[in-house]
Structures are given as structure tokens and as C-alpha cells.
Amino acid sequence: MKLSVINIYLLYARSMKNILSALILFLCTATTTAIHAQSTPGKASTDKTIAAIDDATDNTSKGSYFSIGINFLSNNVYLGRKDSVVIPYISPYIGYTFKMGIYFRATMSYAASSTDPHIDLTTLEGGYQHTFWDVLTVGGAFDKYFYSTTSKSVRANIKSSLSAFALFSNDYIEPQITFTANFLKNGKTDPLLTVGLDHVFFLANDKLTIIPMIALNAGTQNYYDQYLVDRTTPKGKAKPKRVLASSSQFEVMDYEISTAIQYKTHDWVFLINPTLAIPENPSTLIRNNQPVVLENLTNTFFIEVDISHRFYSKSKK
After folding, report:
1. Which residues pair with 209 in a beta bridge?
2. Most CB atoms within 10 A, among 93, 124, 240, 268?
3. How does 143-163 read in b/e, with b if 16+ C-beta sit within 10 Å?
4. Which fold has domain 5-307?
5. For residues 220, 225, 228 and 233, what is the CA-based torsion angle, rounded to 10 degrees?
6. Which pLDDT score is estimated for 2?
């Protein structure tokens, strides 16, 4: 019997759930001060691993660089949740990275929806990441989001986020932990904890890297509750205070299985990252202050493609 890519991902995910759940318990106990965030739209979840690879190889020896690129995301999925309409993103971006590890980036995301194509999001990001002793990569970032007033993204009520992460590089299985604080337009804050495992395969004289990864995301859903309030209330009608029965409960949101493939040639970087999001813990929806139905969640397979070019400063050494 032939297995599709999605079925293989599902089988792999089921076998890894208990391992990853044990890891999150260990890391939460051993790393009580660690902090991080889920990736910005149009930014790969493997960015931290790729940054660690850059630090560990001779890429950063070229010095600071200016970068331009374009990112394609086949569907706007966040923590396993998505809109009923598929929302692909096409996101051109520019950025500058200092050799010391400080970086800035601006991204404009065009929602290539068949029903309502428009510029959906502009993101401004600044952060720092650095690898110490060739094994420990740490960093943090602040992201400011400017969503269209007509955005159907499940993240549209997040106005900014603050994150920090730690990644331990080795030749076997690389653990990483991230904490993100998402600040919402209604004044609430959603904490998000991400724990991941990956392994890096180097091929073609280190020009080609393949990074299979499994990640667990846990957090609260105030952002999603506000999204449902906005999406389910007809125009002209009074909005309910909430739609989810337990939006402030901290729980596992989804598992994500991905295999990022990156190829570098000269100063060009090509990336493709297929991902399977497996949502967990469907919420009870409320109508007229009464719980009425359990949320219907389905697995989502999506693909990210990224092409960028780096312009290094003239002071290469």
C-alpha cells in the first residue's frame, strides 16, 4: 500500500507525540527562565536552526549584510487554526543583519485570496541572535503587526509580540525552546510556549541542508476568541463578549511536523518548508451564554517557499 506524504507525516507525528510531551515537561522544569515566540507570518519556523547553522559555518565571516527576498505561504495557519477560506500569502521583505547578531526586517504580506485579494499585513521586526561556543544559540525579537481592517487572518487581533528562544546544537537531536508573548488589540496577552526537536543533514559541501523537525505549541487563545467574535457576528449586530468557553486556558494547541530544505549558492538562499499542522484540544463554542458545540478542527498541510539574496558589506574578511 502506498502512503502519501501527509500520511507519512501523520504516522511520524503519532509516534513522536509522547516523546515531545516528555521533552516539554523536562524543558519547562529545567529552563524556567527561557522565553520565545511562534514565527512571524512569512518566516520559517526553522529560522532559529538556520541562524545557528550560519553562525557555526563561515557564512557570518563575510560580515554584515543587506537582504531582499520574497516568501510564499500556501495557507495562513497559526497553531493549527485557520480561516474557512484558504489565505495564501506572498510576502516580499527587506532586512539588514549585523555581524554581531542584531537584525532588522520589514515585510509586506499580500493575501492572494481568490475572493478578496489585498495587502493584508505589514510587519516590522527587530531582534538579536547569536551562537556561543558553537553549541548554544540564543536570541529574542520584537514584532509589530499592521493588519488590514478587512483581514480574515486568525492572527489579525495580535498587534505585537515579544519573544526569546534557546537552541542547543549537536550532531544528533537538537532541542529548542521558545516563549512568545502576543499582545492583543483588546489589551489582553496570550503567552505561547514552543518546544521543538530537529536534526540537520548537511549535503553538497554544506550548501544543502535538510532539517526535519517536530514542534509542540502550547498557549492561550484570547486572540482566536476575538477572531471568532469578529467573524461570526453579522454587520450591525452587537458583538458578544466571547465565543470560546475557555480562551484563557493554557493548553497544547498543535503539533507541527516539517522538513525544511535550504540550498545556498553564492549569495542566494532558496528554501522550501512543507509542514503538517495537527491541532489539539478543540474549544467549546458559546451562543447566548450557553456552551453549544465543540469546535471542528482538521489537520492542515501547507508549504512555504522562500528566495532571498544577500548583499554583504564591502569589508569582507
Report:
1. 202, 262
2. 93
3. bebebbeebbbbbbbbbbbbb
4. Porin (2.40.160)
5. 180
6. 45
Q: Report residue 83: phi and psi, to 5°.
A: -75, 160
Contact 228, 241 (CB under 8 A): no
Residue whose cell numbers read 499542522: 277
Out of 15-19, 273-277, 306-310, least confident range: 15-19
> Does the pLDDT at position 5 exceed 70?
no
> In this model, does residue 199 exceed pLDDT 80?
yes
Give the span between the Cα atoms of 218 and 97, in whole angstroms. 30
Q: Are 214 and 257 in contact (CB under 8 A)?
A: yes
Question: What is the C-alpha separation between 39 and 45, in angstroms, rounded?
Answer: 6
Per-residue pLDDT at 3: 47
Note whether 116 and 90 are within 8 A (CB): no
**Could you give phi then psi for residue 103, rounded to 5 degrees?**
-145, 155
Give pLDDT, residue 150. Answer: 87
The grid coordinates of residue 238 equal 452587537
Pairing of strands 290-294, 268-279: unpaired
Q: What are phi and psi of 227, to 5 degrees?
A: -60, -45
Coil, strand or helix at 134: coil
Is the separation of the CB atoms in 292 and 285 below 8 Å? yes
C-alpha dihedral, 121 to 126 to 132 to 136, nearest 10°? -30
Termini Cα distance of the chain = 54
Q: Where are the beta strands (DSSP E) in 41-101?
A: 65-73, 89-97
**256 and 276 Cβ atoms separated by less than 8 Å:** yes
Report how far residue 86's alpha carbon sits from residue 95's, in angstroms, rounded to the nearest whole number: 28
What pLDDT is stored for residue 37 in this prediction? Answer: 36
Give the residue from 161, 189, 193 showing the smallest Cα distance to 178. 193
Against a cut of 0.85, is the pTM above it?
Answer: no
- pLDDT value of position 273: 95
For residue range 25-60, list pLDDT tens digits in order: 444 333 333 333 344 554 555 565 555 555 555 445
